[in-house]
Design goal:
mainly alpha, Arc Repressor Mutant, subunit A, two-stranded antiparallel sheet
Length: 194
């Protein structure tokens, strides 16, 4: 709804916000009411911007805070916007982290180090990242994932000499976040000991 004083548009707010503000036709306009209306209109603009961001991609709390800051919203508006999004279930760092882990593991195969790196890069808190990576390590077998990845990579490199295949496979496994022990065990199983 558009709020006007005479012909001048003061703000545009939702009907819900107009009811919260208890606005009425021909209500006297003072500085306190103007400040409340401006605050509510600013919050609605931030929520709208956040909604557009969430329509395009899943976002962490830190990424949303950065985006709202880039758009020029003050700290209070950022906090209230993020609070509402969390309350409505639209921002959930834990769900975001779990979805990213599933994607990394299922689509591209990833070890604990890569998972940790990717989650931290998305702005998740270190304690949440540690808990999620630990859950994956306890419920999943990184050795079998690394072995499956190595078999695919080795099938593409049969024309290479053994030392080159070993070196490349080692690099591929460690870049995908597998620890040194897992990489060495997989290489030993597939290519034998030196």
């Amino acid at each position: 709804m558009t709020i006007r004083i005479g012909r001048r548009v003061v703000a545009t707010v939702s009907l819900e916000s107009m009811n919260e503000l208890q606005l009425a036709v021909n209500q006297p306009w003072d500085d306190a009411l103007a400040a409340r209306v401006t605050d509510v209109a600013n919050l609605e603009k931030a929520l709208s911007a956040a909604g557009r961001r969430l329509n395009r991609q899943a976002t962490t709390v830190r990424q949303m805070r950065t985006r709202l800051n880039e758009l020029g919203f003050d700290e209070s508006t950022q906090q209230r916007t993020i609070g509402r999004l969390i309350q409505r279930g639209l921002l959930d760092d834990e769900a975001f982290g779990r979805a990213l882990i599933d994607e990394l593991i299922l689509r591209r195969s990833a070890g604990a180090n890569l998972l940790r790196h990717k989650l931290l890069a998305k702005g998740l808190e270190a304690s949440l990242v540690a808990r999620l990576v630990t859950e994956v390590a306890e419920s999943d077998d990184p050795y079998s994932r690394a072995l499956a990845l190595a078999r695919v990579k080795l099938a593409d490199s049969t024309w290479l000499e053994l030392p080159t295949r070993r070196r490349r496979l080692y690099g591929q496994l460690t870049r995908r976040g597998y620890d040194l022990e897992t990489a060495e065990a997989v290489i030993s199983e597939l290519l034998g000991q030196d």
